[in-house]
Every structure is written in C-alpha cells, then in structure tokens.
C-alpha cells in the first residue's frame, strides 16, 4: 500500500513544516543524530506523536538508534516537495503583495518569485526585489512563458474569483489565497487560504478566554 493510498491526516501534514524547520536548525548546528525523545523535548510534541507521524512515511530510523538529522531533513523536504523549485507570481502589488515579494525566505525554500502584477498604472515599472510590476493584461502570457505554477493572490475579494479563473485557465496549479473569499477552482488545483483577520480573531478569542478565566479564579 503506497503512501498516496493512505490518506495522511491534515494534522500530520500541518506538523511537517515545523519538523523541517527544527531539523534544519539542528543540521546548521552540526547535530548528526537525534532521538525522538530529544526531538520531543525541543519541539514540545510527545515522542510517541513524533514516531507515529514519521511512521506514516516509513519511519526514517531504527528504534533506539535515533534519527540521522541530515537524512530526516532531506526526506521531509522531499515529502514537502521542497527538492523541486516552484516559480510563483504575486497578483496585487499593494502593501501585502510587496511585503511578501520582499520576504527572502521563500527563495531558500525553492519558491522563486518571478513576477508581480497589478491593475494600478501608477505602480507599473516599480521595481520590487529586482522584479518590475506589470499590468494584469500581461499575466496570462507571462504564466505560460515562464512556467509559473503558483500564484499568490493579494487582491480584494471582488477581483479574486475572476482572477483565479483566469489563472487556472492558463495552467496555474496552486493558489496561495490571501483574499477573503472561497475560490471555486477546477479539480487538481490546490488552494491554501490565509485569512489574516480570522487569525487575529482567533488571537482575540484566546485573549478573551484567558482574561475571563483569570477573573473567575
């Protein structure tokens, strides 16, 4: 039974980037081996959870011998698709789009920022990290010519649905969606929604709950 047939839970997938990050730090510190117990103490996840998570992907190490940090880092990177590079464009050159374009860490992970598009003529030609802002009219052709597979949407929700449709029509395979709207995309196109205000509201809820509990004591 291959990995694809076993549906891996979202919770496990959600933890993989964190494992990857910690292992990268250990590797940079020159650590060669780590036990699930040591990893557990660093990450504050139980050792049995770590072993369970890793077993979904074949285990990666012998019991009692610990994990080879470099090997584990490389294997988790492959599972996350980080051994390939992905070309991405940003649609919407406002504050958020510009901030994401300037975030250097993406390139280290193999996400190559290749283009940025906007409908505001005042922004055309503006350089952001060596990439110039182009008109939306050039987007479709750019995607096809530059083998772009990921689009980042940092545009108002009124535009997002039609733009997503245009992007999937020209072969975009994945959308990182910062617009507050659910996108209806064809089968096989992956969407990851990032709702900044939802995240802030969760923080507000936790703050509220903490204050309430404190006052009840």
Explain what the structure shows.
With 217 residues, this protein is of the alpha/beta class. The N and C termini lie far apart (52 Å). It has a seven-stranded mixed sheet, sandwiched between helices. The protein has a two-stranded antiparallel ribbon with strand order 1-2. It contains nine helices and nine strands. Helix content is 46%, strand content 17%. The protein has helices spanning 10-28, 36-43, 47-55, 69-79, 95-101, 105-108, 139-145, 157-169, 196-216; strands at 33-34, 67-68, 86-91, 111-118, 127-128, 131-135, 150-153, 174-177, 190-193. The chain folds into two domains: 10-79, Arc Repressor Mutant, subunit A (Orthogonal Bundle), CATH 1.10.10.10; 86-197, Rossmann fold, CATH 3.40.50.720. It is globular. Helix 1 packs antiparallel against helix 4 (69-79) and helix 2 packs across helix 3 (47-55).
Keywords:
217 residues, alpha/beta, Arc Repressor Mutant, subunit A, Rossmann fold, disordered N terminus
Secondary structure blueprint with pairings:
Layout (H helix, E strand, L loop, with lengths): L9 H19 L4 E2 L1 H8 L3 H9 L11 E2 H11 L6 E6 L3 H7 L3 H4 L2 E8 L8 E2 L2 E5 L3 H7 L4 E4 L3 H13 L4 E4 L12 E4 L2 H21 L1
Helix pairs in contact: 1-4, 2-3
Distance between the termini: 52 Å
List low-pLDDT spans: 1-5
Structural class: alpha/beta
**Can you name the CATH architecture of the largest domain?**
3-Layer(aba) Sandwich
CATH class of the largest domain: Alpha Beta
CATH topology label of the largest domain = Rossmann fold
Number of strands: 9
How helix-rich are the residues, as a percent range? 40-55%
């Amino acid at each position: 039974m291959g990995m694809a047939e076993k549906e891996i839970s979202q919770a496990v997938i959600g933890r993989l980037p964190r494992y990857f990050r910690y292992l990268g730090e250990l590797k940079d510190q020159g650590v060669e081996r780590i036990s699930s117990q040591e990893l557990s103490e660093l990450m504050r996840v139980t050792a049995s959870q770590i072993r369970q998570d890793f077993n979904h992907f074949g285990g990666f190490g012998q019991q009692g011998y610990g994990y080879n940090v470099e090997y584990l880092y490389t294997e988790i990177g492959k599972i996350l698709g980080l051994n390939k590079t992905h070309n991405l464009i940003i649609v919407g050159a406002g504050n958020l789009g510009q901030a994401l374009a300037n975030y250097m860490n993406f390139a280290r992970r193999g996400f190559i920022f290749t283009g940025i598009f906007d409908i505001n003529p005042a922004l055309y030609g503006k350089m952001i990290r060596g990439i110039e802002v182009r008109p939306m009219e050039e987007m479709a052709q750019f995607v096809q010519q530059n083998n772009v597979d990921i689009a980042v949407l940092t545009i108002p929700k009124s535009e997002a649905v039609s733009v997503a449709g245009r992007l999937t029509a020209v072969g975009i395979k994945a959308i990182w969606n910062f617009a507050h709207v659910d996108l209806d995309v064809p089968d096989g196109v992956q969407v990851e929604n990032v709702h900044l205000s939802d995240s802030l509201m969760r923080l507000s809820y936790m703050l509220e709950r903490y204050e309430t509990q404190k006052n009840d004591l």
